[in-house]
Amino acid sequence: MEQFFLLLFLALGGSALAGGVKVVNQGDEALVETLGKYNGRKLKPGLSIVTPFLDRVAYRQTVREQVLDIPPQQCITRDNVSISVDAVVYWRIMDLEKACYKVATLVPAMENLVRTQIRSEMGKLELDQTFTARTEVNEMLLRELDIATDPWGVKVTRVELRDICPAKAVMDAMELQMSAERKKRAAILNSEGERESAVNSARGKAEAQILDAEAHQKAMILRAQAERQAQVLKAHATAEALQILTKALGSEAKAQDALQFLLAQHYIEMGATIGKSDSSKIMFMDPRSIPATLEGMKAIVGDQSLQSEHHG
What we know:
Blueprint: H1 2-20, E1 21-24, E2 28-34, E3 37-43, E4 46-49, E5 55-62, E6 66-76, E7 82-93, H2 96-101, H3 106-122, H4 127-132, H5 134-149, E8 154-166, H6 168-249, H7 252-275, H8 289-311
Helix pairs in contact: 3-5, 6-7, 7-8
């Protein structure tokens, strides 16, 4: 009988000793209550001793960052479109005492709070804005949730909306709208391309006509300059011829006869030039100039014959 009580005492002692030794893992914290009352004792990572049968670990939780996955939920936008939204929230416990005693069930309370805030923010936006203003919505949710969870000793570090899915009917309408927009943009680009092509073609033709006109103008100028140069040279040649004839004939009367001869020669050359053209032509000459011209030619020819006989 004594052995039985001894074994019972040893068992109770070992159980009490084992219950008095507590080990807290790294990254975790624990709260200790004495006779059901929390007196501010907190167990840090490592080995700790508590009083058996009087003290107990009331709350043990990690103080590392945690992830709260929010499942898809239905929301209504400002333009009365039903969408499904899910999110992920990153958070950590900053005050273990508040997390234990300020809220009964921390994780469900946070999940319901996040859902409520998501519905509230989505209700402020139209459907198109929910896709373009995702960053702004994330920042708004982070700010609101951080303020709401501060009394619970929780710090919300990040909020991310993952998927925003409208209803199937809305998706079909959006696809039709996008298809129409793409066709519209394609038609606009095609018309702009055709317009640019027409403008470039017209500009090219105008520039070609301008270049052709400039080339024609330059050709006419060069032709006129050449004709003027030819006339100047011809005039110089005629003047030199007159000077030679005047010097050779030696008298003013005979020089006038030589001038009439040159004019008659000029008329003959002009008639030959006019005769080469394909159009109809009529050439008039002053009859009074013909006898004088002939007399001048005779005088010149006779004078040259006399000079030849004299030299002979």
